[in-house]
Amino acid sequence: MTIFRTASRALTAMAVTATAAVLPVNIAVAEPVSCAPWAQHTVAAGYGILENLGFDGRGNLLLAQQSVTGSAGSLQRLGADGSTSVVVDDIDGPGAILVIGGIAYFTAGNSAASALTDRADGSIRALHLDTGAVTTVATGLTMPNGLAQLPNGDFVVSRDIGAGTLTRVGADNTATPYAPSLSSTNGLAFDRPRNRLVVSTTFTPESVVAAVDYADSDSPPRQVVIPGAGPLNAADDLTVGPDGKAYVALNVAGRIEQVDLETGQTCPIADGLPLSSSARFGSGPGWDPNALYVTSFLGTVTRLTPPAP
């Protein structure tokens, strides 16, 4: 069922974005380099479709769990000790999770049906970790998938199916286009040391990781191309490591790609991870800060540990 859902989503998005082109501006294409493989260990299994993850800094991993239909999703809590619980139930299409201080922000309404019908039923919500209360931060969004926060406090959401795929959301719920040259956007991470928003594209002809300059977001960003056909890679969520490199989950290709936005070099650090959806470095008690934790549509959480220096 999950494989059918992914294939259907890919075929639909390919039809929608068949005419989209990656702009040949500031594109870095370098020879692929070899990376030593990272060790793989299954941390958890048996979940539904896992779309995203975020560490709450208190010893827990939050997981965005979807159903095949996109409705009746939830936020799940996985403790470093293996304990499990439901944090928020009955979420239609939970997407990205972004933990800032005592709040876990997450998107809802992340569904292909909303994108294809241009239905603005998506939102950004806030889970207050101290109390468990959930409040609504923004509404009127279409298929909000990835989520990042800019230095001024505005949010950016992505949408990998349809037009106008990056949207900036202000404190007054005003939504405006952001980095308009990019299409079919998915993973988002704000790289504070370099003052840029790092973005992946899913169904464009080539898989692109772009660095949007916060000081000049309307200009075409620097882009790095990941080898392989875009829809067959299906770049999903990403994170930026302490080394400044992007780590991208390639959903259909089933691998995690390391991308150097300065040199344009890319390399796989892990393979054989089908339908991988998101990756984050460990944070908080009990989670290895040097390891990547990867979710999948198959309901697994996998720890990737880098080789010893």
Strand content: over 45%
- Give the overall silhouette: globular
> How much helicity do the residues have?
under 10%
> How many distinct helices?
3
The average pLDDT value, as a whole number, equals 91
User: Any low-confidence stretches, pLDDT <50, length ≥5?
Assistant: 1-8, 10-24
**Which structural class do you get from the secondary structure elements?**
mainly beta
> How many runs of DSSP E, i.e. beta strands?
25
- Return Rg in Å: 17 Å
Q: Kindly, what is the distance between the CA atoms of the first and last residues, rounded to a whole number of angstroms?
A: 41 Å
The major beta sheet can be summarized as: 5 strands, mixed
With strands numbered from the N-terminus, the spatial order across the biggest sheet is 1-18-17-16-15
Query: What sequence of helices (H) and strands (E) makes up the elements?
Result: HEEEEEEEEHEEEEEEEEEEHEEEEEEE
